[in-house]
Here is the input.
Amino acid sequence: MRYNRWFTPWVLVIPALTWLLVFNLWPSINTVILSFTNARPIGGGHFVGLKNFETLLHDEQLRWALLNSVIYMVVCLPFLTVLPLLLAVLVEKKLPGITFFRTAFYTPVVASAVVVALIWQWILDDRGLVNGLAEKLGVISGPLPFLSDQWLLLLSAISLTIWKGLGYYMIIYLAALGNVGRELHEAAAVDGAGPFRRFVHITIPGVRGTMILISILISVSALRVFSELFILSGGKGGPGGRDSSVVMLIQQYSQGFEGNLGYASALSIVLFFVTVVPMLVLARLNRRGAEA
Amino acid sequence: MRRRRLAPVAALAAAALTLAGCGLGSDDSGSGGAKPTVDANAKVTGEVSFQTWALKPKFTSYVEGVIKAFEAKYPGTHVTWLDQPGDGYDKKVLSQASAGQLPDVTNLPPDFALPLAKQNMLLDVAAADPKLNDEYVEGGVQAYQYQGMSGTFGYPWYLNTDIDYWNATKFAAAGLDVKNPPKTFDELLAAAKVMHDKTGGKEYLMSRLPGIGDFTNAGIKILSDDGKKFTFNTPEAAALLDKYRDAYKAGYMPRDILTNEYLGNSKLFTQNKVAWTTGGGNAIQDFQKDNPSLKGKVVPSPALDTPPLYVQGLSVSAKTKNQAAAIALARFVTNAENQAAFAKIVNIFPSTKASAQDPYFSKSDGTPESDAKVLAFQSLAKAKNLQPPVISGATNDFIGQQISLAISGKISSQAALDAAVAKANQLLTQ
Here is the structure.
């Protein structure tokens, strides 16, 4: 009786392969092809060569969106890589009532992004909680335009992303911290190393791989940000659309009966390359670090 | 060996490339629309499908009653009723149209019907029904006639418009007379200044950015006659934006309106944060239901300038296999009798000329709710489509973004309008 027939591996991978082909490969190829057309949701379209990409070069909103994405990534990356690690180290300790803090830190993750953004909108508006408190305390003389100034709106969205992401990455770090040998900490403590030195020389190297993974996840999600900016800017990307992200532009161009699928596909390709570059850089850094 | 390995890859690539390009196809948009092959006297029988937008479960018995009456009037007919949820209706219709499965009779507002008519997916119902222009109000019929195309691509079903609502308490606090509210935009600006100055900047009257409708009201031409170019970047439009920018800078409007979605105006009114909003004839009931403290404080008045006309209609699919029954059903559902019955269970207004004399719509019982309904009904007589249906969602967004940039004072009004027109033209021709 033979169990290892040649097709057995294929049978096992066919479900995953089918999924990959239908929902990943085919849409990807379709997007590339559509980016060279002026296709609409109904009525089709024609090949227009590189016209969509030429338009991209002169699209002022895309320039703002790319700048926003880069700022988003640059600000989110250090905060969301380091702060959740510190939180994880804090809540890892077995102290009475620590479960409450673990749950509290994780709560923003399970809350819907839309609900959270709406609450933040209420907190940050001209007569919202933050401005009201600050004015009462005499810190500011007039309300700060968190939701109507281009840069403050971006900063508000970034703060929201960081606040919402802390708990998620904290959980990943908690799992990684469990793999850092307790005996290393004990040995270092015996040798006279304080908590800070143990954190720098034992904890950080111990979770280095996880930090790289988290950095990649943060970079990708920061570059693909949508909900926070969309909700806080009332779905319009702020004055002049200058607080749009690339995903918001894709949504804007592809919406409705007259959606411009060709241009939206060209934007998707730009987003793909913008997302892949930092991913490759971080992966390379990881490899170099591992070899060293 | 190498060839054997390459073969499946090549086959896969070929299959992928064949499958890809989904969304491409014949771009056979026409200018004449699809013409019916039957006339109004054709025999009505057989199956026909009918799609409505979010009428279940609130109006199930009404719609079922109309369908039953239709089937009784035309023995041998059978209507299959589909009702789609309110959210995502455009996406549903889009997927039906893309798959060639549009129901025989579909509820489509004019801006949904336009792209379908361009692709010859809707019948020119006026070609089969010469009485259309005589029986339905002009604005309703015109809503389904598009620049650069010949034909009428839907029966107007029901209409609505906006009137103004004022907060009497806030008016009194500012020393303004709510019984004599602003009647023009300039009076509105003057009242906004009074409200700001008298309350130390704590109360707002206005909370709305201008849009295409305001340009139309100011007599600015939005679109060229052939419908191929936007033309609203005029000095008059810039002057209008300048007035809004100055009012915004002076603090007469909440600063966050630059990022508020369209409904922000009525939301703020409901939250008792601003003293003016626009809304349909039944909006007063919603304000008072959502915020009972507003009861007795909301005063309606006719809209400033020309009120907008909102139209819902029934279009007939060009692919219907039963044109006679589909046209008859669309006409039956939208006839004066059925529309009047519908308008009495929900606050909408009939699009039939015969309903104009119905005292139910034209006489108030003296309550603010009834006053609002009568005002809205009277406003319909001069209401117009203020925004051309060719302005798609994306175009509207880009125009709104440039307007908010101008109001924020970051760029001049003229520069914002030029940028908006350039982008709108690009989206129109792409």
